[in-house]
Amino acid sequence: MAVGRDTIVARLGEFTARSVPLDGRRAAAVCVALSGRAEEFGFWLITRPVTMRAHAGQFALPGGRVDDGEDTVGAALRELREEVGVACGRDDVLGRLDDYPTRSGYVITPVVVWADGAGRPSPNPAEVATLDWVPLRDLEVTPRFLRIPESDRPVIQLPLLGHLVHAPTAAMLYQFREVVLHRRHTRVDDLEQPVFAWR
């Protein structure tokens, strides 16, 4: 479990991330923002305010739409700064994971960022109801795979913070765990979102 920056960079470098064509969907990006506490590393996980129009009350990684003129890395870093108040640069990007196409019409690119030493978070209350630092060891949970009548793909749930985190966030964190912590090149495009996240 004791992985540092060099190990994370190496394991992401060994992994060939898949890109998914937009095919009419919107591009989005999220940050797996890594930082340390007491010689242990973890990542930031947010809960969306219940007042938000889309994905209200859901767990998420910091992120959002790619604006015109941006690439996915630029969008991920901008969203991290706007939502969490942590400013990182392109030199802090360690790699990326597979694109994840969502039922709500997006293709999300997860960008792994080294945010250790980037300053104290100052979450934006308009976009962040709660901000939790989750140690990487907490990803060593048994994921739940459910079947639903609406899809032939399994729905993934990750038990974190006393709750169940769903895809797309759960799928991306599960892939991060497999690729970075266990060096297993696991794909997650077969993992489904719950029906409530389809819109």
UniProtKB/TrEMBL annotation:
Record-linked CDD domains: NUDIX_CoAse_Nudt7 (cd03426)
Signal peptide, first to last residue: none
Record flagged with keyword Signal: no
Molecular function (Gene Ontology), one example: metal ion binding
Protein name: NUDIX domain-containing protein
Pfam assignment, any one: NUDIX
Co-factor(s): Mg(2+); Mn(2+)
SUPFAM superfamilies linked to this entry: Nudix
Keywords: Hydrolase, Magnesium, Manganese, Metal-binding
Every Nudix hydrolase domain range: 24-160
Key word Nucleotide-binding present: no
